[in-house]
Design goal:
It is globular and about 55 Å long. It contains 14 helices and no strands. α4 packs across α6. It is mostly helical and 315 residues long. The longest helix has 32 residues. It has one domain. The protein is 79% helix and 0% strand. This is EamA family transporter RarD. Belongs to the EamA transporter family. Keywords: Cell membrane, Membrane, Transmembrane, Transmembrane helix, Transport. Its main location: membrane.
Amino acid sequence: MALMARGDLPIQTVVETEDNPARTGLIHALCAYTIWGFMPLFFKQLVEISALEVVAHRIVWSVPLLLVILWQRKRLGEFFGVMRDSKTLRLMLISSALIATNWLIYIWAIYQNQILAASLGYYLNPLLNVVLGYFFLSERLKPVQWLAVAMAAAGVAVLAIETLATIWISLALAASFGLYGMVRKVAPVKSVPGLTAETTLLFPIAAAFAGWAFLYDASPGLGYSLRTDIYLILGGAITATPLLFFASAAKRLSLATLGFVQYIGPTIQFLLGVFLYNEPLTVSHMICFGLIWAALVLYSGDALVSARKSSTAKA
């Protein structure tokens, strides 16, 4: 997600004359990834509602909130610029389809007690980004990065032998979010205006489906109870809040630091799946996660060393 927010502005409530921007950035990064990590707790409260309807409401309630945020930060012009640029708009159509697919699979996985599979997908995402950069953006891979990718692939292969019926969840989440990040990297759009454009493009379909569900679907949904209504409306805030924290963190922290902090999210999900929701942790799971964690240590350690060398050279 660092690819989407590079160069974005800080949260408005942050005092820009702060004495220690790195400390503020780290706090905001921790807030963002902690919220993302605990999201299964939120969506578990909506299991009686279809994942498709939850995604629809997440989009519907995100749009007004994001527009208000842009208006308050005097950045509506960026949003309108995106909507007027045909080339950028085509990229936003692709990214909006990818992020909606990612949200839908993620919520469905939570409903199906597959939080471990979801966390694995987000562990895989940084390594998949390396592969996508190699094939689509002509980025070169170092031997350490190739080794990390090979270790992750071996872990997935081990798990696939035992859980072929669910491994697709991890791969689909990693692929949809990895491709989303790649599209957002090449699109000349910052994080909040970009998300506003994406949800605005999705809004007509989402609003139509939410309206149909409200009028004709007999299953629980909007209007079923005050508790349900609050959770559905809060879906907009759950979408926007961690992104705003992340936008602030990305401006203040190096990508290497963000690379380490990003593993907080899937780690929290992993712990929730095992210890709170009692999802089975098999030997294949342990081998798979062990290989991927080792791969991420190699990958992140190499990124940190490269960042230090670059900083030393600049000094």
